[in-house]
Write a structure and sequence with these properties.
By secondary structure, this protein is an alpha+beta fold. The chain is built from 6 helices and 10 strands; from the N terminus they run H-E-E-E-E-H-E-E-H-E-E-E-H-H-H-E. The radius of gyration is 16 Å and the shape is globular.
């Protein structure tokens, strides 16, 4: 993995962050969620996307804090209409910034507790993006290949919380033609990837205007639980 590849995993990871008893679904305002919401030991989330469906199995034994956050976000419909804004072929597909800037603002600086890496970043596993200790929040990435370096990168690593169990071909097909934005090139519509800061402040309006080919999540729903 190149130095550049390592850097882009982290960009924007600290922008957003921990649920209390409120959660913000896309375009619906705040939704009250019980403070003692019982999170199952494992559960399956069905992601219906512009490319088709893939299913994800979350495993609490891998990352209890991370899986608790995922359950809360899915129940709050946070990922509905979210774009896969950063897809790097043979590396990762990243998503999690909401289409509504108000929702992004509501999750700022709400990081969840750090945890050790209990499972390697193998192909199909899912982990939170992060920019340092205490910065896991709402952004997730799917490993498009085995990325063992992410297990210990920068001294803290990226703990997987779940894995794609069906539909990995759908994930592989996500649009990756825009590439990356870099400090040198900036975000150039049609020529490089979007700015995460601009997604936070402008939401999907920004992405649709400059990056209309990005694939997106239609809905993400818990479809099975084990307690």
């Amino acid at each position: 993995m190149t130095v550049f590849a390592r850097r882009i995993v982290l960009v924007g990871a600290a922008t957003l962050g921990a649920s209390g008893c409120w959660a913000w679904p896309f375009s619906h305002g705040p939704v009250r969620l019980s403070q003692d919401l019982a999170v199952p030991d494992s559960f399956v989330v069905a992601f219906e996307t512009s490319r088709g469906r893939f299913d994800v199995m979350a495993r609490k034994q891998w990352s209890p804090n991370g899986v608790d956050r995922l359950y809360t976000l899915v129940r709050a419909r946070h990922y509905d209409d979210a774009r896969f804004f950063r897809v790097v072929k043979d590396f990762v597909a990243q998503f999690g910034l909401a289409g509504d800037p108000k929702v992004n603002n509501a999750w700022k600086i709400r990081g969840i507790g750090d945890e050790p890496v209990r499972h390697t970043n193998s192909r199909g596993t899912i982990a939170y993006a992060r920019g340092g200790p205490g910065t896991r929040s709402v952004q997730l990435y799917i490993n498009l290949k085995d990325n063992p370096r992410l297990d210990s990168l920068n001294g803290f690593g990226f703990p997987p919380i779940a894995e794609v169990v069906t539909g990995l071909a759908v994930v592989d097909s996500l649009y990756s033609g825009y590439g990356e934005s870099t400090p040198r090139t900036g975000a150039q519509p049609g020529r490089s990837g979007p700015s995460q800061d601009s997604i936070v402040t402008q939401g999907n309006a920004y992405l649709i205007r400059g990056w209309p080919k990005l694939d997106y999540i239609k809905t993400a729903r818990v479809v099975r639980e084990w307690r």
